[in-house]
Specification:
Blueprint: E1 13-17, E2 20-21, E3 27-29, E4 33-40, E5 50-58, E6 61-66, H1 71-80, E7 87-94, E8 100-114, E9 127-133, E10 137-141
Antiparallel strand pairs: 1-2, 1-7, 3-6, 4-5, 6-9, 7-8, 8-9, 8-10
Length: 143
């Protein structure tokens, strides 16, 4: 095991869906996993409560980007009309030397699409976001 520690900048990332790069995203949030705790009080043991690991729970993932294509809307819309199309997604973080850390998300499905807010007195980009449920993810270093 190497003692070298590397800190990565959060702004160099790409999103792949089923192995195909999906364009530029400005934000990705929700890469979170939590183990629920089961507490058990044993009779006659008053000094502590047993705390045991339970189910693993993954948070929803939200992706945001400037509107460039209709891909995300179309995927959400097909789901809305009952055509379930789960996808495997990779969030790939890169450094200046293109070394990668990636999170491979399995069985993603869109559950919420949020269109842009409009404001005439600003020059901000129109941004859409999509919220995904999934069956979990694995982290992979170097590729």
């Amino acid at each position: 095991m190497s003692n070298t520690r590397k800190v990565y900048s959060a702004h160099r990332f790409k999103v792949e869906m089923n192995g195909i790069i999906q364009g530029s995203f400005s934000e990705c949030s929700g890469l979170q996993v939590e183990t629920e705790i089961f507490e058990w009080q044993e009779g006659g043991r008053n000094e502590y409560t047993h705390r045991l690991p339970g189910r693993v729970k993954f948070s929803n993932i939200t992706l945001k980007r400037g509107i460039a294509t209709m891909d995300m809307w179309n995927w959400f819309n097909r789901t809305r009309w009952g055509k379930i199309e789960r996808a495997d997604i990779s969030i790939v973080l890169m450094d200046m030397e293109l070394r990668q850390i990636q999170w491979n998300i399995t069985g993603a499905l869109p559950i919420k699409w949020l269109g842009p807010s409009f404001k005439a007195n600003t020059g901000e980009a129109a941004v859409e976001s999509i919220e995904l449920i999934h069956n979990g993810f694995e982290q992979q270093f170097g590729k």
